[in-house]
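Input (structure):
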């Protein structure tokens, strides 16, 4: 079918598009994900779909990690296993919702997420709250963002002191907070 969408991810040889508006009726379906045929990156059938069912919430971002499709709403994360012919929901995480795609980024073997409740690392199996012990009293701005430097295995986190111009650093090598730059550039848009 002919459709427009706001979010997309590719897992293996299959493309997934989310927050779909189909030409018939023209209404946006905030939790609908259409799936391409294997090996075809275009042409989405309305018979191959996943309904993420966020309880009134809509898709904010989609990310591929291994054989899983991570679907972020503003209140939760849904982890969908797409390794087989039939997709199934592996789990949902209420604390991992995001408001903007810049609040999520892929890391070595998973994804890092920042939101007003903390900084999290999802390795495909478990969620680790990186702000739980050392940074639990820090107020995080709603205008936050996260980035990853793969060479140094360093997370860049904007907005941890409720400011859009400071940047804090978390090392994935030694799993600790290693610094802060109060004069960093403003929060990136992407």
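Output (sequence):
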């Amino acid at each position: 079918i002919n459709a427009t969408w706001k979010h997309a991810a590719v897992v293996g040889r299959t493309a997934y598009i989310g927050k779909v508006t189909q030409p018939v009726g023209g209404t946006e379906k905030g939790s609908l994900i259409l799936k391409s045929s294997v090996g075809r990156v275009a042409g989405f059938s309305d018979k191959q779909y996943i309904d993420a069912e966020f309880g009134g919430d809509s898709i904010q971002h989609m990310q591929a990690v291994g054989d899983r499709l991570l679907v972020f709403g503003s209140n939760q994360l849904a982890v969908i296993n797409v390794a087989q012919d039939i997709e199934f929901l592996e789990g949902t995480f209420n604390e991992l919702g995001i408001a903007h795609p810049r609040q999520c980024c892929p890391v070595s073997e998973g994804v890092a997420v920042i939101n007003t409740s903390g900084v999290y690392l999802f390795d495909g199996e478990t969620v680790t709250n990186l702000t739980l012990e050392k940074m639990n009293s820090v107020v995080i701005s709603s205008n936050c963002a996260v980035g990853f430097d793969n060479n140094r295995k360093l997370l860049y986190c904007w907005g941890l002191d409720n400011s859009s111009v400071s940047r804090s650093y978390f090392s994935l090598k030694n799993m600790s907070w290693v610094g802060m730059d109060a004069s960093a550039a403003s929060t990136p848009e992407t």
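Notes: The mean pLDDT is 84. The chain is about 0% helix and 50% strand.
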